[in-house]
Amino acid sequence: MRKLKLRLLAKLAAVFALAVAVGTAMLTVDNVFLNHIPLRRLLEFNIPAILAGDLLILIVLSVFSYRWIGSGDDPEDLRLRLMRLPGKMLSGLLLLSIALSVLYDVVSIRRRGGSLMELTASDWADLAGSFVSEMTVALVIGTLQYALSRRAVRPALLSLGTKESRPAPLAGLLLPMSVATLSCFFVVSTAGFEYLYGTSSRPIEIGNIAVAAAIRLAFGMMVFYLLVAEIRQDIRTASAEVKALQRGGGAFAHRPIPVVSGDEFGELAEAFNRLQRHMGRSYEETRQELRLAYQVQKSLLPAAARSRGGLELAALSEPSREVGGDLFDLVDRPDGGLVVMIGDVSGKGVSASMLMTATLALFRKEARAADSPAELLRRLNAAIAETLQGRMYVTMGVGFWDAAASTWRYASAGHVTPMLVRGRRAEEAKALPSLPLGIDDEEDYAETVERLEAGDALLLYTDGIVEATAEDGELFGFARLERALERIPEGDTAERALRRLLELLPPSGQGAYDDDRTLLLLRVPAAGEEEDRVAGL
């Protein structure tokens, strides 16, 4: 902390020295070109007096800075003090300049052997012009000091960091911007006033006035540019952080805007950081709730490592977000058969999760009562359509497995067609097109019947699989899925086959999947294989 303060004090001393040097240069230009005072005479009194005033200003500002900064031992207290320092220096410099200007003019009058009571109207006009000229210089160096001090304290404020704290007292931009505007006005106008309204007996030379005006204008524009550039830096920093937050999406990595001033921009940065912290806490609370919701949702799905109804089963279901809209289920029928269901709710996030949970509960209620997959879909569609009224929908595939007859009856409500793997050949199983659940309450569903042989496998899946992004940037698609299934060796168990398939699919966690993905692999064991073998992920 001590090294930080010493480095900052050295920078501020250099800023103050530069500011008074600019003021000395401007006053000398005025005396030479406007007041026609020879350099020899300036060296006798004016320049020594100006330098003495400069030294006094430098000492006063440096001592004040030392006491202002040195009294802040706590990092947070130091941060607040540094944000107010440029404004404090500006106010102090202007007040000190007014006092020194008055003192300088009084001493000048006394030095000429006169008094204020003896001044003529012309003398008062010259005195007023001199005061305005000196105040113009004070405004310029005050603005310069403010802009450079603001820049000097920025690295120290960044090193102190930005954290949740009490807000800094507002030191508005009104004063520095007013000072900068007035300085530019007087810089340009005083030389013109000297030409138009000069009342002294000194000769007026347009060339000298033009030179002085040009030099003043150069100084004024430089100072004004420095102030605007410094303020623009705060605007750019805030804009960059807002854009970074916008790009952050769900990750929401809180990256606060550096608060490097006590003015309106600093207040805006503080308000933005407080908003970010509030959003961060809310987001984290929501994530915790969604994690709990996912655990509840996951517990509603059937255990994947099961062998039921004479089929080997292996399943995987992964949401693209904290909670998902994919669902699958297995229900044992009284006749020893098995009802297999896979579905996909439209949309993502919490709304899809809630509809998924309601659909799953409704399916379990109706699965044992329906005599066929088509009837089951009709029952579900009537209930879902009445509730959703077309606002959302559910695609679903339902299969009835009859172990005794080795038959698979299947009906689809707008769901992707299962893949049938027979030997080393994979192709789409039989299915009839239809509308998803929830769109038309009068939709009629039809079913297909297929006989499965020993060793055959059925892959039921959601569209997140084929809509994933492959390594070449294209959709993974149905053709690649078929080729991946054909690469799985014959005789693999459902568990092993699903593991091999996952190795051939685009890997998760690398942005390949924008949608939930669910796979349900059913396999008819070959003769002699253990039918009660547990398989799953």
Automatic annotation (TrEMBL):
Single GO molecular function: phosphatase activity
Residue ranges of the TM segments: 47-69, 90-107, 127-148, 168-189, 209-228
Signal sequence coordinates: 1-19
GO biological process, one term: signal transduction
Main location: membrane
Top-rank taxon, per record: Bacteria
GO CC, alphabetical: plasma membrane
Residues of the HAMP domain: 229-284
Keywords linked to the UniProt accession: Cell membrane, Hydrolase, Membrane, Signal, Transmembrane, Transmembrane helix
InterPro entries: Bact_Sigma-Reg, HAMP_dom, PPM-type-like_dom_sf, PPM-type_phosphatase-like_dom
Places the protein is found: Cell membrane
Keyword Transmembrane helix in record: yes
Record has ATP-binding as a keyword: no
Gene3D superfamilies with a match to the protein in the record: 6.10.340.10, PPM-type phosphatase domain
Full protein name: HAMP domain-containing protein
